[in-house]
């Protein structure tokens, strides 16, 4: 063969690694079901997405704008694109799976302006079997050392008129708690902020959830409907509404993620957010201990009348510590008593005063004595702290916590996700890791897969949850069933689980001490499996659990998982989910206000015979929501469970191998 022809063939074989970008650039998922196509025109960059050849979004824009030179769309040209197939195997300490295999096709497309400032950026796209992600990568360039990003107005020009399930927010300052709006895209209120993830359901059964991953040194993102198209907006910096991100180059945006499947359960099973997150930054993770925890604030700090001088003191806290030791509960949370924090504070209503000091306990509470006594009983002590009391004294406070032997803390009342707050939260996590402390964020924005990067974050709130039962009735089974299909898609959520005074809507009443919860007790038990949280609350008072059916399940249910499978689900109506820990499986099912019968096969089990402990709604649970029935029987992979769920009901099953 002539050398010229041989060299030509060699060049031809190398071309797949470089996609010439004169026309549209296309990239597909490994299973070929998802296709992402990127193009340019006079208005800039735009893309389309198909799933199984069905057009989901067309002529959707990628728009990022800067104070230095305005929107990035000045006569753009695409350089040759670099493509690659990426595979990775990694482990998670917390999450829906302990071992994850990630596989995607990636393209990096350099884009340059041919006029104006002639700025450069790269568009990086990754297409997985369960979704698409893209981000902006801003390289260092001679005439631009830093940028002020004024916004990202990316668009999602969805076809048809999909159903929308979204949390509408009044502004960017938010605890991210509320009741979800359910409508269609055409009827969705225009120009109002939507928290992410947002779920879109198409008429042919395809689902898309839009959210973001790997949020670092950047502003949180929201969605709005503007001019009948879904667009993105970034959270502004405090006092600088026109500036969203200040960045030194090189810099990059978080990933803009579309989780896609025609099976809604695949979105819940997906690990796409942790696939996109940075690897673990903590070298020694041996001290990170997921588990369950008390939270006496929720129940009103109830203690028996026999307790001598209840309050912010050793005796009251040891009452809860002893309860934990008897019942396999990992942590006791020291929060407050009599509406005053456990730490020194001269502010009111839990807000920090000028002399607030979370490194000093109130008089009468010897924190060293409490931590030492709890440790002897195998129980860890954790605390609640207001973010704005903690942050000014971060290192000092965490050093003191490590000295005392505190294991972690709830950090509360951030209520922001601008770039400054995002960076401060990461600073808290890094400092906490240095002092071997776990973190639980409350009053916080959604997760973005960073439980992989900072596994000492065990959970975060950002969800309307059972704490609201102390003062209102908005948290219903209908609200509960929205969470798996929206907020849970982003990751762990703390929901204040464990209330053991279940009530029907007719019997429910609000009370600050000993609150009630709506839905059946089996619904509450099911939430421990349906939701993801590495720090499950057992938030009622000890005597509320004594001798009560179902409490034995709370003693044994894990808070992290090796495997997750959604057995049956319909958005806003019901879900049945199976999670594995070691050789044990746990199934949780919940429904909305409607009663329901689910037939669930156990074909995911191995060849062994299993014992099944089944907790079901009692026949009269529609009248007395605390009634349940427990059954124990042998099952195998041929077994079908017939689940009968009461209105607002649920069921849980613990499956363990019957070893002969």
Would you write up a description of this structure?
The protein is of the alpha+beta class and 660 residues long. It is built from 13 helices and 44 strands. Strands 1, 8, 9, 10, 11, 12, 15, 16, 17, 18, 22 and 23 form a twelve-stranded antiparallel sheet that branches. Helix 5 (314-326) runs parallel beside helix 6 (367-376). The model is unreliable at 1-21 (pLDDT under 50).
CATH topology heading of the largest domain: Beta-galactosidase, Chain A, domain 5
CATH architecture of the largest domain: Distorted Sandwich
Strand content: 35-45%
Mean pLDDT: 95
Helical coverage, percent range? 10-25%
- The low-confidence runs, each spanning 5 or more residues with pLDDT under 50, are 1-21
* Category from helices, strands and their pairing: alpha+beta
What is the CA-atom radius of gyration, in angstroms?
A: 26 Å
| Morphology call | globular
Instruction: Look at the structure and give the CATH class of the largest domain.
Output: Mainly Beta
Structure annotation, total helices: 13
Largest sheet: 12 strands, antiparallel
Number of domains: 3
How far from one another are the termini?
69 Å
Q: Kindly state the number of beta strands.
A: 44
What layout of secondary structure does this protein have?
Elements: H1 3-14, E1 18-19, E2 25-28, E3 34-41, E4 44-51, E5 54-62, E6 64-66, E7 70-71, E8 76-78, E9 81-91, E10 99-113, E11 120-128, E12 131-138, E13 146-152, E14 155-156, E15 163-169, E16 181-184, E17 193-201, E18 207-213, E19 221-226, E20 229-234, E21 245-248, E22 251-252, E23 255-261, H2 264-269, H3 272-276, E24 291-293, H4 296-299, H5 314-326, E25 331-334, E26 336-337, E27 340-341, E28 343-344, E29 357-361, H6 367-376, E30 380-386, H7 387-390, H8 394-404, E31 408-412, H9 419-434, E32 438-441, E33 457-460, H10 477-482, E34 502-503, E35 517-518, H11 521-530, E36 535-537, H12 542-545, H13 551-556, E37 563-570, E38 574-581, E39 584-591, E40 596-601, E41 610-617, E42 628-635, E43 640-645, E44 650-657
